[in-house]
Amino acid sequence: MPVIKQIMDGELHDAKDKRIKRCDYCSYFYRDQTRPNNSRTCSRECKINRDTLNRAKKRADAALLKPKKKSKRETYYLYWLEYPFWLNEYEMLKQAWKYEAPYSPSKVIQIDAAKQRGELIGGKRKPNRVVPYNGDEAEQPKVFVKYVKISDRKSGEVTISHMEPNELSEYYSRKYTKRHLQLERRRSIEFRCSRKV
Known about the structure:
Layout: H1 2-9, E1 20-22, E2 29-31, H2 44-65, H3 72-76, E3 77-78, E4 85-86, H4 89-100, H5 105-120, H6 165-175, H7 178-196
Antiparallel strand pairs: 1-2, 3-4
C-alpha cells in the first residue's frame, strides 16, 4: 500500500523525465510515446471520454449563458403590478382570442346532443359485469345447450373419465414442478379470499 500511494502521488518516477505525465481524464501517470510529446491522455479510451466530457460541459455552459427568448406575453403584459395591463393592444387581442373564443351555436348543440346520447346508452364506459360464481355447481343456474338441427347427424358418444384424488396428485406432480404447484395453490387461495371480501 505505501508503494502504491507513492506511485499515485508521483514520487517514484524520475522528475526530470518530461515524458512522464498525468492523464487529464483518469489522473494516472503515464509515459508519453508520441514524437512531439504533446498527448494529454494515457489511452484512446481516455481521450474519447475526455472529449465527450468537454462537449457536455460546452453544451451546459451554452445552455446557461444563452438568454431565453421572451414570449410576446412576457414582453407586453405587466402581470406583476397591482392592476396588470398590456403595453400593446394588438398583442392583447392576439392573446385574448386563444382562451375567450366561444363555440358556434351549432357546435354547442352538437356537443349537447352527444352528451344526451351517451347518457341514454349508459355512458361511454362499459359497466362492470360480475359473474356470480363461488365454485359450487349446485348453486349455479343450469346451462342449456341448444344444438343446431342438422339432418342425418347424430351426437357422438360421451366418455366420462374419473380419477381418484391420489391419482390426480400423481398426475400433477409428473406434469408440473413442485414450485409451479405451490404458486397455483397460493393463487387459488388468494382468489378465494378476494372473492369472499
